[in-house]
Design a protein that fits this description.
The chain is α/β, with parallel strands linked by helices. The protein has one domain (about 5-220): Class I glutamine amidotransferase (GATase) domain (Rossmann fold). It is about 30% helix and about 25% strand. It is built from seven helices and twelve strands. The protein has helices spanning about 20-30, 50-60, 80-90, 100-110, 110-120, 130-135, 175-180, and strands spanning about 5, 40, 65-70, 90-95, 125-130, 135-140, 150-155, 160-165, 190, 195-200, 205-210, 215-220. The strands form two sheets. The protein has a seven-stranded mixed sheet with strand order 3-2-4-5-1-10-11, with helices on both faces. It has a five-stranded mixed sheet with strand order 7-6-8-9-12, sandwiched between helices. The radius of gyration is 16 Å and the shape is globular.
Length: about 220
Amino acid sequence: MNKAVIIGGGEIGRKGTDYETQNIDKEIVKLANKQSPNFLLLGFANVNHIESYFRVIKRNYRNLGCTCKTILKKELNNRELILERFNNADIIYIGGGNTLELMRILKQFDMISLIEEAYNNGKVICGLSAGAIAICKYGLSDARKYKEFKLTKVHGIGLVDLLVCPHYNLDGREEELDRIMKKTKDVKGVGLKNLQALKIIDNDISIITENEDNFVKFIN
């Protein structure tokens, strides 16, 4: 059984912010179907701040009964450690940040095949923002800067056959998704707002939301 959760965005409870994604995190842990799941954070979209990012994520998921690990920037050349962390994980969470940097590191250190293998073995693969893009076939990223607001179509790993636009509630993103989808014919597009997530079990898609807004925009 293939299990994925793609999250449009939301605060994870870093200093000075609320913990907005708690219900989504609870659903992710339930999907592991274990009393004390092993959780692995891939925080490479925030590669220079993995440790501080991990401290927050670790607190959240430890409170949900998980044993938490990550892979630090200094550990990226340690193939044995990477394989061990992937093999032991029940939940693999790909964090937010710079999508292009995330995909570069996943490719450079040959982790795409490990994510695919974990997915095919029934482990829970989830991602927030840049991490959501990585899970899908394509996504819309603001990692490149333009003179006017414009999003870049980025290739993800393709576990989920969608083009996702995270943070869809923010200004300009609805128009950008419409623009890109006019030139994208091989997949559906989806606009995911902050505090919205899609839970995808094999081909069955359901919505997880932190509020009453359970409408998700799909574009053919």
